[in-house]
Design brief:
- The chain is α+β, with helices and mostly antiparallel strands.
- The chain is about 30% helix and about 20% strand.
- The chain starts with a helix and ends with a strand.
- The strands form 2 sheets. The protein has a 4-stranded antiparallel sheet. It has a 3-stranded antiparallel sheet with strand order 3-6-5.
- It contains 6 helices and 7 strands, in the order H-E-E-H-H-E-H-E-E-H-H-E-E.
- It has one domain (about 5-165): Alpha-Beta Barrel (ADP-ribosylation fold), CATH 3.20.170.10.
- It is globular, with a radius of gyration of 15 Å.
Length: about 160
């Protein structure tokens, strides 16, 4: 999917049979199943290094706003995060505090509806705020081109390692 296709998917549900990209601090074998429930546990483990109270607060605000106004969208808590293109996955990966960063080709599994949003809304404020969260969940984009991420409530399966950063 190219950026123009993603730009037409502002807000609402998201489904795609095309391969996506996933970023992880762990080396994974092809065929590995990923789910957000494992990610939630990993936040206290491998993902925790370099993350701080601000990151937790961002997710709290995001979930609060989603529950108040956007129940049709999947929760970020317990979701698999994927990117529709390798350049978008790289752009996200270079901001992460862990090394190495593994970028995988993944297939999104299931018939559920995901959500695609501009993750730049999460990076901006010194303190997370409701306005940025609402813009994210409304499917607006903060940058051009937008930095789309897919919030997938189902599982994903690793196809192969795309690259290591």
């Amino acid at each position: 999917m190219n950026g123009d296709d993603a730009a037409r998917r502002l807000g609402g549900s998201y489904r795609s049979a095309e391969p996506h990209y996933h970023v992880s601090p762990m080396l994974l074998a092809g065929g590995t199943r990923l789910n957000g429930r494992a990610r939630a546990v990993n936040i206290r483990g491998a993902w925790a290094e370099g993350y701080g109270p601000r990151d937790v607060e961002v997710e709290r605000v995001m979930e609060f706003v989603r529950r108040q106004h956007f129940l049709e969208h999947p929760s970020r808590v317990g979701a698999v995060f994927a990117w529709p293109t390798l350049p978008l996955a790289r752009h996200y990966a270079v901001r992460l505090p862990f090394h190495p960063r593994y970028l995988y080709v993944v297939n999104l599994i299931g018939t559920c509806d995901g959500f695609i949003g501009d993750f730049q809304f999460l990076a901006h404020p010194e303190r997370p705020d409701v306005e940025h969260a609402q813009s994210y969940w409304q499917g607006e984009h903060d940058t051009f081109p937008a930095q789309w991420e897919v919030v997938w409530p189902g599982d994903a399966e690793v196809v192969e390692l795309a690259e290591t950063l």
